[in-house]
Amino acid sequence: MNKHEWQHIQTLLKLAEMGAHKRTAKISTEYLAEKMGISQQTASRYLIELEHKRWIQRTITPEGSLIKIADLGIKEIQKLYAHLRFLIEAAYPPSVTLEGIVFEGLGEGAYYISKEVYRKQFIEKLGFDPYPGTLNLKLTTEYDLKTRTELETYPAIEVEGFRNENRTFGLVKCYPATIDNKVKGALISAMRSHYDVSVLEIIAPVCLRKQLNLRDGHKVKIEVFTLP
User: CA separation (Å) from 199 to 98, 132, 171, 178?
Assistant: First the structure.
């Protein structure tokens, strides 16, 4: 939600506090401005914008505006309510952010990811065809290591293992993620990985090194989303 949208929601909530979600309330822009700690001109602008969005119905009278929050406005309040309720009641935070340093891995990521049984499941369960290779990040702070360990207790998307004539390929746990606030991908955690929790292996539909112009030693932020 950007600043502008938040100002609209804030105005809507203030109008609801004055009863406009239950009945038509007489509210002057002067009174609304005072309540919100903003100028009368700004309050007037917000009301015009809410009217354009069809979040409120308004009739202007000499004594002030007769305002009723419309169905679309009620829906916005309910959406905010549901979001806040989820944040308060959820067993897990909706997302966690980790920061790691790019390093050159052992190159095994490409080998595993391009296995057809895995690849098909990545496409089906994550919604993208992964670039054959992983971006490897080393976690260095105590906070990041603790958060990464915590993440293991959250529910993940599971990509099932399989067996071919030579060996067994284990289960892979996947967490949807956004890399550097730009590219959608996933953090993968193999049940039998050669890395410990201090290393993040990231997959995406593109080559992340090229797309984000990354080199060894660069710091990268990963926002990891937990499942609802």
Answer: 11, 18, 18, 17
Block residue for tokens 């169905």: 71
Q: Whole-model pTM?
A: 0.69
Residue with tokens 């502008």: 4
Q: Cα dihedral sign for 145, 183, 218, 105? A: positive
Give how many domains the chain has, as a whole number: 2
- Single out the residue of 179, 226, 228 nearest to residue 203, CA to CA: 179
**Residue 95 phi, psi (nearest 5):** -155, 155
**Percent of the residues in the chain that have a pLDDT greater than 70, as a whole number:** 96
- Alpha carbons 186 and 190: distance in angstroms, whole number: 12
Please state the length of the chain: 228
pLDDT tens by residue, 36-52: 999 999 999 999 999 99
Does 150 share its domain with 64? no
Same domain, 168 and 213: yes
